[in-house]
Amino acid sequence: MLEEAVVSIVHDPAAAPVVLDHVSVGYDGTAALDDVCLSVAAGERVAVVGPNGAGKTTLLKVISGILRPSRGTVRVYGHRPGGHICVAYVPQRSQVDWDFPARVSEIVMMGRVRQIGLFRWPAKADWDHVDRALERVGMRQFAGRQISELSGGQQQRVFLAQALAQEAELILLDEPLTGLDTPSQEAIFSLLDDLRGQGVPAIVSTHDLNLAAERFDRVALLHRKLVAFGPPAAVLTRENLAAAYGGHLHVLPDTDGVMVITDTCCEGEEEAA
């Protein structure tokens, strides 16, 4: 039996972790992203915000290599995305088949596939990576559980453990905080803090503008186009939010101009235990 060679890509240490240069993506003639330019530095934490359908998931999929841009270029540590071993993409929980019969340890081991090779069995060193990753996210005691038996917050921790086992150099999280309780959210941010200290950048899509303002270095405000990109205080202004959210943005009377954004994207999200 032929064995697949282990893919090893050495990135340019001088290259920015993520660079998008005039990137556009279309579906059936409709623009999902239009002429987006941005770059992300080592160790940086970037929130991607915008209304439902603004292109947040599309942006993460383009960076991960799941989608290819219609126009423009994407570079991850100086390489085209897709075959780059360093990228860990965690999709929205609604996009995961939770009935898939797999144990927690097996899900985390999937992050080691590119290092191991498709037709090779995991070695003890690979299981050690899995064990350490689960320990790091506080899920080691659940290694033998079926993934479907866990709460939403626990499931997110398992997928973060998969990213750790993968030894990812870039983390992409699509709505990881939706429906999670405060302890589960804090566990995710604690891990992202650790990764920041190692120079690993994280790009996280979220509908929570308060968290975007408080917990991220920069914010990318999307509405197919990049409305604004920069420090939270410079991006999350009334003018920029009005440009992105349009009729979903309301200013309450007699409340010092408090803004309320209504978006039905998250209705029915499950609360985590």
Question: Care to describe what's here?
Answer:
Residues 1-9 and 264-273 have low confidence and may be disordered. The chain contains nine helices and eleven strands. Helices cover 30% and strands 23% of the residues. Strands 5-6-7-3-8-9 form a six-stranded mixed β-sheet, with helices on both faces. Strands 2-1-4 form a three-stranded antiparallel β-sheet, with helices on one face. The chain has a two-stranded antiparallel sheet with strand order 10-11. It is an alpha/beta fold.
Question: Short description, anyone?
Answer:
The chain is of the alpha/beta class.
Using brief descriptors, characterize the structure shown.
273 residues, alpha/beta, six-stranded mixed beta sheet
Secondary structure blueprint with pairings:
Blueprint: E1 18-27, E2 30-40, E3 45-49, H1 56-64, E4 71-76, E5 87-90, H2 104-109, H3 113-116, H4 124-136, H5 152-165, E6 170-174, H6 182-197, E7 202-205, H7 209-215, E8 218-223, E9 225-230, H8 232-235, H9 238-245, E10 249-251, E11 259-261
Parallel strand pairs: 3-7, 3-8, 5-6, 6-7
Antiparallel strand pairs: 1-2, 1-4, 8-9, 10-11
Helix pairs in contact: 4-5, 5-6
